[in-house]
Specification:
The protein is of the alpha/beta class. About 30% of the residues lie in helices and about 25% in strands. It is built from 7 helices and 12 strands. The strands form 2 sheets. The chain has a 6-stranded mixed sheet with strand order 1-2-10-3-4-9, with helices on both faces. A hairpin with a 4-residue loop joins strand 3 and strand 4. The longest helix has 11 residues.
Length: about 220
């Protein structure tokens, strides 16, 4: 792990302990995703979540999405094992497809809601990191709210340093950009695509999802 200024860089093969220490003290990780870099903390850690909101200038009532390595990490958030939407999503993961799932209790990252958007990302290195860390992480875009997300780790590190952030960059190189993850939720009106993104869901698949997740099926 190298230190450029105040922002450390971590690359695959480096010891994991510095990343664990950063998270433990409420610091941030900047992680590569399918399209751009994202800000990562444990979604159950109030201090870390507050650091993300403060750095981004994000409305604290707006939940932070989460990425997980596997089903076990999702269940650790308080998602019920029998949640139909989880089964529907699990058949499509890994993918840039986030699904809003009910949780037993609100999490710091859920903005007071008893639900949170989760996905298993289509990014092998990120999934491996999540597995090694043994925990899910938030994955909100790394940028001030309203600005374009960072694709270049050098520019990202400069922004974090200028903001005085306690952070480490997980260096995944220059990222491709493009559409964010697709976001899907279930509600009284059925299945709704809240954000169209990298995974395209046709109307037929949306209707099938509604049927597949009907109570009692």
């Amino acid at each position: 792990m190298t230190d450029r200024g105040a922002i450390a860089r971590w690359r695959a093969g480096d010891p994991l302990e510095p990343l664990i220490a950063t998270l433990a003290r409420g610091g941030l990780l900047a992680i590569p995703t399918e399209s751009s870099y994202a800000l990562a903390v444990d979604p159950r850690d109030a201090a870390g979540v507050e650091a993300v909101f403060r750095l981004k200038g994000r409305d604290r009532g707006k939940p932070l999405p989460v990425v997980a390595a596997d089903r076990g990490q999702i269940l650790a958030l308080g998602v019920a094992p029998g949640e139909p939407a989880l089964a529907w999503a699990a058949a499509r993961w890994p993918a840039a497809l986030a699904v809003v799932l009910a949780v037993a209790e609100p999490l710091p990252a859920s903005g007071g809601e008893r639900s949170i958007a989760v996905r298993i990302p289509d990014h092998a290195a990120l999934c491996e990191l999540l597995a090694r860390l043994g925990r899910p992480l938030t994955a909100t875009s790394a940028n001030p709210s309203g600005s374009q997300p960072y694709l270049d780790p050098d520019e990202l590190a400069a922004w974090l340093a200028g903001a005085g952030a306690d952070a480490a960059v997980v260096d995944g190189g220059l990222l491709p950009g493009g559409s964010p993850s697709t976001l899907v939720a279930w509600g009284a009106a059925g299945v709704e695509v809240l954000r169209r993104g990298r995974v395209e869901l046709g109307q037929g698949e949306i209707e099938a999802a509604a049927v597949a997740t009907e109570p009692g099926r």
